[in-house]
């Protein structure tokens, strides 16, 4: 189907339930084996919870689809055992450039400072991500992944949900203590349950064209407003793996999707673009950019699609023991790469909370904070995505005039560049208003406040160069971490859940096994730490509390607050 990728075909197995030989009740059932469903299953399985994962297909997603994965998502995937494969295969980038006509009017760097393991962003076709995640799921014995299993009906009840499942060999029912719904933007389960999704559908269309070509274009995000090769519209260019390039052409609402996907319509668009935007010339050579007589590099058409987009979300992501995640719960336009990145953070937030509810160390009300925290993140994504889309696709002559005036001013004036919006890219949510946080009682500087996701930094442990985020990813995953700076004496009190104590020391300090050496000073600076400073970290690596000195009573109170047990 594609010249650069061979789709795996996963084996369908006759369900043992049809023989009546296995129990039909499961602690967790996940519906949908896309990135979010796979992430949810891996998250729970790594925490020791058996998972039944159901998907109605037998392969990975068709076409490149989601391609941009942000630093925070990569860190989540690291904890799930998939991050390195993503980075090894993907195209790393940090810089984005925006043009008006042929003039650059704005640029950004997603990772302007050193001292982070992961880049600001990588580009990788979604089918690779799914394949890597399926491989990881196969390594976990407590994931039962079933292909060609379509969930036809869901009946929620007080102790879980009953699912009617259809297979090539017949139908059966299965009981779930907890159901995670990750069946995509159209979510048949959400529709069947009659649950609302609110927001805005944008009346515009974009053409996605993946092309295979060998070109020395920089591995950056390039966005054009009103370029000479697509007047009056916008164009986006990204490099993917395997010499594949993603080009998005704005078409307008009146475009016929089926007509626009025909090769005889797509290929001339791409040729015209490449004639104006060719690889940078060798040093000292004359550039052929903008010369319509040049044809640009040769290419082959790989995949084409036309899409519309929307910014919507469910008012609540939790409905009793049915939990919605990813596109099933919230949808954004593609400008900003906030879709899959947000969905992976959903599962990161949900996993430890559901584990604690299942093992009885937290009440079910802890799961309400999943909806609260990820609902806040969804609102932030929707706001940024809507603003980007309104700027990129103005819906009146007046708004387009104003947009173009901003772009024109940005050529010469720095103040206008801050107003240019070709997509505010995905960033992790700052959960500073979460009721799980313990508010500061001591003075701190910097942004590593309660609710913030942890910053990474290079460290040394047992003489080996390491990274802070990997060091505080507890082997048990459900554990909280107490990060203690310096040599202060700390004796952990009895706690409702396990707490892992890790010390951070400066180079030259007295070191014992397991101590984290802040080899370059980044940890102390980013956490505004001095000897005696203490940070309590949630299992999803958000800050829960921080103090200038350890206090056993304060630690116990902060844990109760973070678990909704106080």
Written description of the protein model:
The chain has about 575 residues and is α/β, with parallel strands linked by helices. The protein has 14 helices and 26 strands. The protein has helices spanning about 35-45, 70-80, 85-90, 125-140, 190, 255-260, 265-275, 340-360, 365-390, 395-410, 415, 470, 520-525, 550-560, and strands at about 25-30, 50-55, 70, 90-95, 95-100, 105-110, 120-125, 145, 150-155, 160-165, 170-180, 200-210, 220-225, 235-240, 245-250, 300-315, 320, 320-325, 330, 460, 465, 480-485, 500-505, 515, 535, 545. The strands form 5 sheets. Strands 1, 2, 8, 9, 10, 11, 17 and 18 form an 8-stranded mixed β-sheet that branches. Strands 6-5-13-14-15-12-16-19 form an 8-stranded mixed β-sheet. A 5-stranded mixed β-sheet has the order 24-23-22-25-26, with helices on one face. The longest helix is centred in the last third of the chain and has 27 residues, at about 365-390. Residues about 280-290 have low confidence and may be disordered.
The main pleated sheet reads as: 8 strands, mixed
Rounded radius of gyration (Å): 25 Å
* Beta-strand content bin: 25-35%
Counting DSSP E segments of at least 2 residues, the number of strands comes to 26
Task: Please render the helix and strand layout as text.
Blueprint: E1 25-31, H1 35-46, E2 51-54, E3 68-70, H2 71-79, H3 83-89, E4 91-93, E5 95-100, E6 103-109, E7 121-123, H4 126-138, E8 143-146, E9 150-157, E10 160-167, E11 170-181, H5 188-192, E12 198-212, E13 221-225, E14 234-239, E15 244-250, H6 257-260, H7 263-276, E16 300-313, E17 318-319, E18 322-324, E19 330-331, H8 339-358, H9 366-392, H10 397-410, H11 414-417, E20 458-461, E21 464-467, H12 468-471, E22 480-485, E23 499-505, E24 516-517, H13 522-526, E25 534-537, E26 543-547, H14 552-562
Parallel strand pairs: 1-2, 1-11, 2-8, 5-13, 11-18, 22-23, 23-24
Antiparallel strand pairs: 3-7, 4-7, 5-6, 9-10, 10-11, 12-15, 12-16, 13-14, 14-15, 16-19, 17-18, 20-21, 22-25, 25-26
Helix pairs in contact: 1-4, 1-8, 2-3, 2-8, 8-9
């Amino acid at each position: 189907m594609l010249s650069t990728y061979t789709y795996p075909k996963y084996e369908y197995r006759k369900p043992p339930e049809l023989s009546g030989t296995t129990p039909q009740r499961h602690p967790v059932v996940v519906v949908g084996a896309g990135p979010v469903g796979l992430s949810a299953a891996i998250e729970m399985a790594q925490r020791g919870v058996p998972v039944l994962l159901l998907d109605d297909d037998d392969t990975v997603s068709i076409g490149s689809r989601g391609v941009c994965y942000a630093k925070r998502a990569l860190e989540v995937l690291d904890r799930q055992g998939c991050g390195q494969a993503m980075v090894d295969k993907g195209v790393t980038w940090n810089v984005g450039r925006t043009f008006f006509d042929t003039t650059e009017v704005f640029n950004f760097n997603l990772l302007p400072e050193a001292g982070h393991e992961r880049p600001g962003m990588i580009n990788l076709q979604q089918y690779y991500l799914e394949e890597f995640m399926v491989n990881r799921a196969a390594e976990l014995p407590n994931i039962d992944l079933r292909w060609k299993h379509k969930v036809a009906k869901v009946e929620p009840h007080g102790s879980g949900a009953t699912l009617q499942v259809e297979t090539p060999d017949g139908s059966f029912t299965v009981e779930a203590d907890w159901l995670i719904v990750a069946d995509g933007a159209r979510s048949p389960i959400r529709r069947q349950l009659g649950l609302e999704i609110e927001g805005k559908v944008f009346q515009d269309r974009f053409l996605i064209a993946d092309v295979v070509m060998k070109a020395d274009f920089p591995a950056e995000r390039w966005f054009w407003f009103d370029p000479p090769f697509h007047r009056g519209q916008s164009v986006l260019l990204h490099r993917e793996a395997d010499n594949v390039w993603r080009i998005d052409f704005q078409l307008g609402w009146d475009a016929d999707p089926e007509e626009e996907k025909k090769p005889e319509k797509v290929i001339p668009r791409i040729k015209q673009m490449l004639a104006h935007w060719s690889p940078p010339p060798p040093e000292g050579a004359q550039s052929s950019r903008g010369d319509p007589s040049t044809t640009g590099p040769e290419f082959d058409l790989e995949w084409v699609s036309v899409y519309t987009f929307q910014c919507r979300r469910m008012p609540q992501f939790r409905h009793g023991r049915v939990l919605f995640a990813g596109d099933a719960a919230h949808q954004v336009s593609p400008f900003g790469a906030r879709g899959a990145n947000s969905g992976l953070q959903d599962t990161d937030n949900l996993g430890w909370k559901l584990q604690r509810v299942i093992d009885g160390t937290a009440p079910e009300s802890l799961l309400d904070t999943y909806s609260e925290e990820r609902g806040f993140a969804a609102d932030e994504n929707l706001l940024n995505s809507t603003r980007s889309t309104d700027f990129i696709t103005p819906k009146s002559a007046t708004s387009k005039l104003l947009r173009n005036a901003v772009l024109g001013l940005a050529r010469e004036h720095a103040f206008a560049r801050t107003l240019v919006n070709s997509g505010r890219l995905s960033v992790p949510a700052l959960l500073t208003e979460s009721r799980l946080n313990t508010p500061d009682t001591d003075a701190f500087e910097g942004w590593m406040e309660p609710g913030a996701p942890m910053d990474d930094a290079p460290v040394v442990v047992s003489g080996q160069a390491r990274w802070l985020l990997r060091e505080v990813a507890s082997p048990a995953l459900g554990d909280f971490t107490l990060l203690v700076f310096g040599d202060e004496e700390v004796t952990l009190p009895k706690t409702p859940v396990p707490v892992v104590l890790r010390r951070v020391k400066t180079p030259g300090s007295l070191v014992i096994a397991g101590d984290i050496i802040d080899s370059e000073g980044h940890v102390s600076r980013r956490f505004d730490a001095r000897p005696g400073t203490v940070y309590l970290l949630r299992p999803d690596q958000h800050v829960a509390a921080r103090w200038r000195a350890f206090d056993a009573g304060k630690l116990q109170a902060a844990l109760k607050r973070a678990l909704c047990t106080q």
